[in-house]
């Protein structure tokens, strides 16, 4: 099963931009922290810019948050970077003539919609500022 790390990487990028403002915020520098390539960082930053979470200037390695971290929820970040916002997916390739295979998708889809809404509602209560505070706290504990 393939899973996406775009949300984690986007949160990482936003936290990095906030914590290291005034330093080298090039996609190369950020990519070293995320341990990915600069192209991936630029793609995610493009999504964050389209969602009006960051602002950038062409030719300058100085992105910044558009609003305070206390106002950026994980739900907002998630919707900005995930191409398929559904967290759960039922297997559509099951035997239609089987009692289980022919009916499980409809049942699971109903449950998955409920779970999706629950997760998204919870994500609306968690803010980038909490992640940044946790990072800074962990750095002093380690």
Task: Walk me through the structure.
The structure is a single chain. By secondary structure, the chain is mainly α. The chain has helices spanning 6-19, 27-34, 38-50, 74-81, 104-123, 128-141; strands at residues 54-55, 64-65. The chain has six helices and two strands, in the order H-H-H-E-E-H-H-H. Strand 1 (54-55) and strand 2 (64-65) form a beta hairpin. The longest helix is centred in the last third of the chain and has 20 residues, at 104-123. The radius of gyration is 19 Å and the shape is elongated. It starts with 5 loop residues before the first helix and ends with a helix. 18% of the residues are buried.
What would a concise description of this structure say?
The chain is mainly α. The chain has helices at 6-19, 27-34, 38-50, 74-81, 104-123, 128-141, and strands at residues 54-55, 64-65. It is built from 6 helices and 2 strands.
CATH superfamily of one domain: Winged helix-like DNA-binding domain superfamily/Winged helix DNA-binding domain
The share of residues in extended strands comes to: under 5%
Strands in their spatial order, largest beta sheet = 1-2
The number of distinct helices, counting runs of at least 4 residues, comes to 6
Q: What's the overall geometry? A: elongated
Main β-sheet: number of strands, strand sense, barrel status? 2 strands, antiparallel
CATH class of one domain: Mainly Alpha
Give the helix level as a range of percent.
40-55%
CATH architecture descriptor text of one domain = Orthogonal Bundle
Question: Total strand count, please?
Answer: 2
> Stretches where pLDDT falls below 50 for ≥5 residues?
none
Average pLDDT figure: 94
Order of helices and strands: HHHEEHHH
Tell me the CATH topology of one domain.
Answer: Arc Repressor Mutant, subunit A
Distance between the termini: 33 Å
Query: If you compute it from the alpha carbons, what radius of gyration comes out, rounded to the nearest whole angstrom?
Result: 19 Å
Structural class estimated from helices and strands: mainly alpha
GO molecular function: DNA-binding transcription factor activity
GO cellular component, one term: cytosol
Protein name: Transcriptional regulator
């Amino acid at each position: 099963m393939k899973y996406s790390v775009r949300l984690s990487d986007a949160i990482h990028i936003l936290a990095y931009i906030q914590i290291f403002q005034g330093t080298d915020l090039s996609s190369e520098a950020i990519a070293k922290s995320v341990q990915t390539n600069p192209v991936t960082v630029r793609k995610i930053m493009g999504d964050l810019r389209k969602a009006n979470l960051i602002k950038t200037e062409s030719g300058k390695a100085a992105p910044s948050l558009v609003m305070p971290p206390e106002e950026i929820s994980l739900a907002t970040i998630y919707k900005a970077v995930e191409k398929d916002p559904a967290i759960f997916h039922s297997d559509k390739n099951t035997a239609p003539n089987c009692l289980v295979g022919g009916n499980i998708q409809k049942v699971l889809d109903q449950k998955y919609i409920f779970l999706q809404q629950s997760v998204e509602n919870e994500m609306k209560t968690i803010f980038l500022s909490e992640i940044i505070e946790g990072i800074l706290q962990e750095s002093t504990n380690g």
